[in-house]
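hiii so my PI (J.) wants the whole complex modelled not just the main chain, which honestly fair. so below is everything: three entries, each one labled with what it is. i double checked the lines twice but i was tired so who knows lol
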Amino acid sequence: MKLRKIAELVCGELDGDKDIEILGVKQIEEATEGYITFLSNKRYLKKLRLSRASAVIVSDDIDVEIPKIRVKNPYLAFAKILKAFYPEIEVKRGVDKRAVIGNGVKIGEEVAIYPFVYVGDDVEIGDGSVLYPFVSIGNGSKIGNNTIIYSNVSIYHRVFIGKNVIIHSGAVIGSDGFGFVKMDNGTHQKIPQVGFVIIEDDVEIGANVCVDRATMDKTIIKRGTKLDNFIQIAHNVVIGEDSVIAAQTGISGSCRLGKGVTIGGQVGIIDHINIGDNVILIPQAGVMKDIESNRVFAGIPAMDHTLWKKTCSAIPKLPELIRKVRKIEKGLIQMSEDKKSD
Amino acid sequence: MKLRKIAELVCGELDGDKDIEILGVKQIEEATEGYITFLSNKRYLKKLRLSRASAVIVSDDIDVEIPKIRVKNPYLAFAKILKAFYPEIEVKRGVDKRAVIGNGVKIGEEVAIYPFVYVGDDVEIGDGSVLYPFVSIGNGSKIGNNTIIYSNVSIYHRVFIGKNVIIHSGAVIGSDGFGFVKMDNGTHQKIPQVGFVIIEDDVEIGANVCVDRATMDKTIIKRGTKLDNFIQIAHNVVIGEDSVIAAQTGISGSCRLGKGVTIGGQVGIIDHINIGDNVILIPQAGVMKDIESNRVFAGIPAMDHTLWKKTCSAIPKLPELIRKVRKIEKGLIQMSEDKKSD
Amino acid sequence: MKLRKIAELVCGELDGDKDIEILGVKQIEEATEGYITFLSNKRYLKKLRLSRASAVIVSDDIDVEIPKIRVKNPYLAFAKILKAFYPEIEVKRGVDKRAVIGNGVKIGEEVAIYPFVYVGDDVEIGDGSVLYPFVSIGNGSKIGNNTIIYSNVSIYHRVFIGKNVIIHSGAVIGSDGFGFVKMDNGTHQKIPQVGFVIIEDDVEIGANVCVDRATMDKTIIKRGTKLDNFIQIAHNVVIGEDSVIAAQTGISGSCRLGKGVTIGGQVGIIDHINIGDNVILIPQAGVMKDIESNRVFAGIPAMDHTLWKKTCSAIPKLPELIRKVRKIEKGLIQMSEDKKSD
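here's the output for the full assembly
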């Protein structure tokens, strides 16, 4: 692809030889002759100078010899170029005859239903959606348009999934919430989990994620939210729009998260917690209290991020601190004894 | 359903209009006219007064205007009413011809074996059990009566599952324990994992749980224990009766847990630990020593819960404490210098 | 099996009755008459004296009355004997006609492809490999010789797996890396994940593990590394040879781990971290900085193991320490007031 064409693709301003042939895109460290790279952070300018890339996408005018394409967001331009160079993997459209389709199922246009897909009764599948092998969809569930569900995903009954959703392999949507009544004899009686699940448009759900159905009412993941792998979403949780949650995080029953929330990996949130908009949680935090909008929290139990940073550097000093205090105590006892003997 | 009938169902004492028509059950916040709600905790009495529910289930005589049903355990009554209002999802009984059934398999009465189920040789499946699509059962395993196994569950060979068990999608039962011998050249030689797994009656296993088989002998989860999603049960673990374990907890090899144990989410227990009956572990605890019966533990490394609470409120004070001690030290040095100069 | 034959099998030196008939192998606590056991650690010598085992495998000359087989590594001998007593589970060789095989697929000799396996186009499967039911393999992927893939494993397109690999049920290899560009309006634009995955020879991957494909280039797990269940390997991670990682650990994007690394359960490593050879990470550690070779780290944030041990015993003393310092402060104020009044 000519550099000129790439500049058009990313709506960028080209400075340099327009006719260079670009073979692909690579990160700064790996880029060699013929490849375009991108500078998303000025910290890597030094690396860029050492790079053998033939062109670079930048956000500001920087002083490098190779041709530049200037854009507002080089990382976004990178995403666009990747898409251009690597066409999406080919999908076999149609409903394979080795799939099992239940009664009363409505299937849209241009879908791809692979062999060994199981679709229960009264399911709706929107136009252009793709169901890979070993996907199971329970009775009465709905899949919107252009949604991709990878192999071995289990969708229970009454799960309502929007359009442009991506669900990776091994995810489970609509399993029972974890609710029991403790009886006098110590046994646990199951509370029927009769609610449902809503996954709104543009959500991405990572591999082996679990989203439990609500006890009553609904568990809901709102538009544009992205979940990494192994995330636990318990019954009746609400996650706001455009949130991003990293792998192995667990959100307990009935938590309500605002929009634009960012959560690191292995975070835990106990049940019935409210978290405001645009909150950021640092990896491995343990949240046990509500958090207001726009706060950054970290640690177990979670505290303000700046305080947490201080405690992090303080904790390794603790053994030394204990020694110091012991020394001070002895010194004071000595002083008071000296005084008495005076 | 008439309120009178609901009172009968939950064996409760009705105070108010017996003939109100009840449309369903809802939580206090959501309940509207025509719905019954329940008060499990007096803390929510204020909410109840604001609720538009048409009836309420309570444990004590409380002063509200709407009709009341008095029962010993409102939460249990709630579970019963849910069951009455929401009939269980319909199951297609019979052995689907698109399932694969091995040699020497014994299948009980009234089972439901869905399309795309794989049953290995010499397996037994009890009366009334349900195997959803993409369930795989290895050679020689047994499933008791009235057990439900949701889609995409993998059960290896020689796994013995009791009756009234529920296993949610994506769970893996009987995978190899994690055991290797380190060789002189740094490589790791696999130790054959030749043991088996027992899941006793009335156990519930959450989505994407793993229960490894024993190296030798058995891994066992005893009667009535409930596991949430993403729980790791390593080889040779024993979990006692009626225990409840929340999501993302990991229990390492050869741990022995008593009965009635309650474990929060994201807890980790290192290998060969003994935990007594009725122990409670707070979420995110890290257990590195045995714990006696009836104790409540928390923190990393796990300590008594009351001590942990104190350390939790102490840790954020640590940076300030370090400053204080530094100040005291300086003060003391000053004092001792003042003394010398006296 | 005669004891003499067992001694030959493990290349050991037999001291005692060569002709005893051995029925099997058991751990010290469980071993009864007719069984052989092993002593891997002298700590258990006392238990051995109480054991009713008929023979024992030891590394040193110890003073016990029952017949002994002396070997260099009793644990390895144990593994060999287990293998001899418990033959591997029988596998049905051949390509089952109820499997779906894509176009251009190359299948080696003596493979076992079970019913309900889905193999995409242009896949290669090496000699002697086993694919259990509900395994899905994406277009262009390769499986080496004698590799075992258990049921419900999802392998995406362009995943390259070596020989003698074992992948347990529910594992997902090649799902998209977690990468998005945040737009001005708060939404997140997906970055195409166009890289691939390499799993080298002799790797074992636990149940429900996730290995994400690289954004560009590759995610790679090198020869002989063993992963326990529920491990998250993010995009572009490199894990060196002969490493061992315990369950529920998460390794974030672009981390590079050396060879011979040992990681405990529930460890978290943030993105772009470099970890040297033979590093040991204690369970539940949170790594936020690079770690040099041969170090042992623990805690959140991870610190040197010996320091961590000290802080672990210091933390429960913190509430008491705060009280002490408060007392000292009061004492000093009193002293200074006494002085003034002097």
